From TrEMBL:
Name of the protein this chain belongs to: Deaminase
GO molecular function (one): 5-amino-6-(5-phosphoribosylamino)uracil reductase activity
A Pfam short name: RibD_C
Gene Ontology biological process terms, A to Z: riboflavin biosynthetic process
């Protein structure tokens, strides 16, 4: 059976990106980049918006406000291009232009449930906030990993990750600091039916 990893990089205040900020908020370091390069092979899951953005980067579209990709960003996009990817969308038309992508139009939750039951490798999300939220609500997420960068984007932050989430209990399974400033935490999540003080009589 496959494991499902929800994987986020965030600002300290829980934004997935910030207007005017480069990838990794410009704060990646050698330890973090080396760790990225050591990650096991996985099949990446994403929704339509993430596919459009990342396939655009792969085709050479530079992020807004930049003249060119930084080497770290280019390496990250190249690695994703080589990886196996599944896109869940009812609006994107085939053929997909990004290499190694499979389009799934069926319900994402049921499709991932079947992928987990019938597979043996690692499934991991990239971006795709609404997809991750749906998979978590359905109880399909085995590992929930967050890499927090030391910046608060209160004025420019976009894509608030945890809006619309259920209450979730998190059992920490790993933690690590990279380059003296970037914090990784990984949890085993458990969706709660109610908070402790609202237990039914």
């Amino acid at each position: 059976m496959s494991e499902l990893l929800v994987d986020f990089i965030t600002s300290l205040d829980g934004h997935a990106s910030g207007e005017g900020w480069p990838g990794f908020w410009g704060l990646e370091g050698p330890e973090y980049l080396a760790w990225l390069g050591e990650q096991p092979e996985s099949t990446h899951l994403m929704g339509a918006n993430t596919y459009r953005q990342m396939s655009g980067f792969a085709a050479g579209e530079v992020p807004s406000g930049q003249d060119e990709f930084r080497p770290e960003e280019e390496a990250s996009v190249d690695e994703l291009t080589r990886a196996s990817k599944v896109v869940f969308s009812s609006s994107i038309e085939e053929p997909l232009t990004w290499a190694n992508c499979t389009l799934v139009r069926d319900d994402a939750v049921e499709a991932v449930r079947a992928m987990k039951a019938g597979g043996s490798g690692l499934l991991s999300t990239i971006g795709s906030l609404s997809l991750c939220r749906s998979l978590l609500r359905a109880g399909l997420v085995d590992r929930f990993r967050v890499v927090m960068f030391p910046v608060i984007t209160g004025a420019t932050g976009a894509e608030r990750i945890y809006d619309g989430y259920p209450d979730v209990a998190l059992e920490m399974t790993e933690h690590r600091t990279f380059d003296g400033r970037i914090q990784l935490v990984e949890y085993k999540p458990r969706v709660l039916e109610h908070p402790p003080l609202f237990a039914p009589a």
